[in-house]
Amino acid sequence: MPLDFFQKIESHLENKLPFVAYRKPNEKGVTAIFQDDEELHHLNDYSETGFVFAPFDSDRAAVLLKLDEILNLTHFPEEANAPSQDIEIGVDTKQKDFHLELVKKGIAQIKAGSFDKVVLSRGIQLKTDASPLILFQTLLHEYKTAFCYLWYHPKVGMWLGATPEILLTMHNRKLTTMSLAGTQNYGNDENPNWGNKELEEQQLVTNYILKALDGKVSGLERMPTETVKAGSLMHLRTKISGNAKQEKLGEVVKALHPTPAVCGMPKEKTKAFILKEENYDREFYTGFLGELNFKTERNRNNRPRNTENNVYRSISKNTTLFVNLRCMQLKEDNLQIYVGGGITKDSDPEKEWNETVAKSKTMLKVIMATE
Predict the structure, then answer these.
(1) N- to C-terminal Cα distance for the chain?
(2) How far apart are CA 332 and CA 313, in angstroms?
(3) Are 22 and 147 in contact (CB under 8 A)?
(4) What sequence ranges are listed for the domain Chorismate-utilising enzyme C-terminal (predicted)?
(5) Domain boundaries, the chain
(6) How far apart are CA 27 and CA 276, in angstroms?
């Protein structure tokens, strides 16, 4: 285990200084960004460079960590995953009753024509004495295809997660996003059957994103919908790409966030319903996080011996933002896990509750592995 990398993180924690450590999907290396002071910086106009952490409520300011120091761990040691355990979760009947009623309210509003889809969530509170670093390392071992992170700011709090969903990537002018909807447990079948509810939900989300980007992104292309595995769950995913000007990045993010996959359609009506009816503050759950305007430099000359041409370098600007799903918030010895699901006119409240139980196991498995 590369102690100096994690010791630096531990030192920042002890000194209550902001940092984020993360690994991108299907990559080996882990990156850590350290801010040298405890000042709370907020995002202004998407022209800045830093690591952004944004809340669900887009009317609230996003936090920007400054790139005072960056460390890269080129390879996080591989370990065999512990056998997945069948986690038994005690049912909080009061919370279940509230969630069932909440889903029923959402379905009633859809049938009344108020909106087409709404995403409803809940928080699960637990006690734990696990260290943040052990939880993060367990995330890295368990979820190699997800964006795994540990984020901390003394004036905001501590969050960890393993999210499968990209909000957007932007490489110079090339922009890529995705619609992700529909959920079922993985049953050793990489191409499972999907019901009408999940297929309709996926189509609604895809169409909404295409419409939201119309006029802001040129040359929009939609890839065929595919099934993807995220931990013990399966989802439907449709990739969408096009071209956008760098100065339009903020406008594009505003059009996408919060996405239909975490909020609903239309956005403003469903967001208002969520803020009023969910009866708790999502904070950064279903917000977004990631690298903003990171610069990459490379030689244009592919012949290293031709040193005369090595002065010709290309500098690209890259943004990679992930939706903050499958996450938890750590407050001293208390953990809050966040889970939710998309509600359509065909939703069944009991099945929607069971879906949140299945999603909670993503984080619960990590917690259990540290005990």
Answers:
(1) 20
(2) 47
(3) yes
(4) 99-295, 314-359
(5) 3-80+94-297+314-369
(6) 39
Do 132 and 13 form a contact (C-beta atoms < 8 A)? yes
Residues ≥6 apart with Cβ < 8 Å to 264: 115, 116, 117, 118, 119, 270, 271, 273, 274, 342, 343
DSSP strand pairing (264-265 vs 288-299): unpaired
- The whole-model pTM stands at 0.88
Using DSSP, state whether 241 is helix, strand or coil.
strand
Strands across the sheet with 69-73, in order? 69-73, 30-34, 19-23, 147-153, 157-163, 327-331, 334-343, 117-127, 264-265
Give SS3 for 154.
coil
CATH 3.60.120.10 fits 3-80+94-297+314-369, yes or no: yes
166-209 pLDDT, tens digit per residue, is 999 999 999 999 887 777 777 766 677 888 878 887 887 888 88
131 backbone dihedrals φ, ψ, rounded to 5°: -80, 150
| C-alpha distances out from residue 57 to 73, 259, 281, Å | 33, 11, 9
pLDDT score, position 297: 72
| Residues 134-155, mean pLDDT to the nearest whole number | 94
Cα angle: 55, vertex 161, 83; to 5 degrees: 160
Give the helix ranges, DSSP H, for 158-292: 196-213, 249-256, 267-277
For the record, the structure tokens of 16 come out as 């209550």
What DSSP designation does 214 have? B
Q: Residue 174 and residue 206: Cα distance in Å, rounded?
A: 19
Exposed e or buried b per residue across 274-311, where buried means at least 16 C-beta atoms within 10 angstroms of its C-beta: beeebeeebbbbbbbbbbbbbeeeeeeeeeeeeeeeee
Mean pLDDT of the chain: 88
Bridge partners (DSSP) of residue 180 are 237
Say what the alpha-carbon torsion angle 323, 328, 329, 330 is, to the nearest 10 degrees: -140
CA 312, CA 146: separation in Å to the nearest integer?
Answer: 35
Note the pLDDT tens digit of each residue in 56-100: 999 999 999 999 999 999 988 776 444 455 556 667 889 999 999
Distance between CA 32 and CA 183 in Å, rounded?
31
Token pair in block for residue 32: 């850590």
pLDDT of res. 150: 98
3-state DSSP call for residue 352?
Answer: helix
Dihedral (Cα; 191, 196, 198, 204), 10-degree rounding: 120
